[in-house]
Specification:
2 domains; D-Maltodextrin-Binding Protein, domain 2; two-stranded antiparallel ribbon; 8 helices; flat; alpha/beta
Amino acid sequence: MILKPLPPLNALRAFEATARLLSVTEAAAELHVTPPAISHQLKVLEDYIGFPLFQRLHKGITLTEKGETYFFRIARQLSNIARATEAIIGDSAEPRLTLAVPPHFFTGWMVSRLPKLIPKNLLANVRFVDTVRKINFDTEGIDAQIAWGSAGWSGLVCELLVDDEVCIVCSPDFLDRYGPLSNLQDLGRATHLHGGQAYRLGSRVRCCGHRTARIGKEPDVYSAIARR
C-alpha cells in the first residue's frame, strides 16, 4: 500500500499540544520550544491542509469546528505511534517509568532525595516530565504523576507523599493598608491574587477553624496518583 503524503510531524505535534492545552505558550513549554516556533508550525499545518484550525480570540484561542474534528482524529493516532515506539523499545530495553512532576517540587524537594528514592542502577530507566497540569493517562504515555492536592481523582490510585508547609508574607505597604494582621481572620479583609501554580491556603485556614478567612480551595499536600 502506498501511503499518501503526510503533514510535517513537527507541525502535527505542535497542533496536538496546542489543541489539547488551548494555549500556544503552554504547548511551547511542553515541547521545549518558543511560542513563535509553535505559531510557525501551526501556520505550516494550516497552509498544508488548507483551512484554519484555530480561532484567535481577544484572550486565548479556541478550535474551529474542523480543527476540533481533526484533533480528535489525530490525537489517538499520535498516541498509538508513541505507544508502538515505547513497546518496540521495551522489547530490547529495561522497562521505563515515566513520572510527571511539578518543576518546583522536583527541584525543591525531590532532587536531593533521588538517591534514597530510586536506586542508582535504575535511575536511567525513569523519565521525568515537568508539568503542573492534570495528566491524561490514556493518551500521554505517562505512568504516574506527583500532583498538588488530596484524594478524589476518580478511577486513579492516590497516595499522600508529604504535607506542604506555606508561609504568608507581605510588604510593609500591604500591612499599612490592611493591617493589623494578627490572625487568619484578618486576611479576609485583603485582596488575594495568585497564579495557576500559586499555593492555596484554603484547607489550612479551615483546619485552623477560621472559616471566614477562606482563601482557596485546594489542600496543601502533594500526592502521587496513577491509573488503577
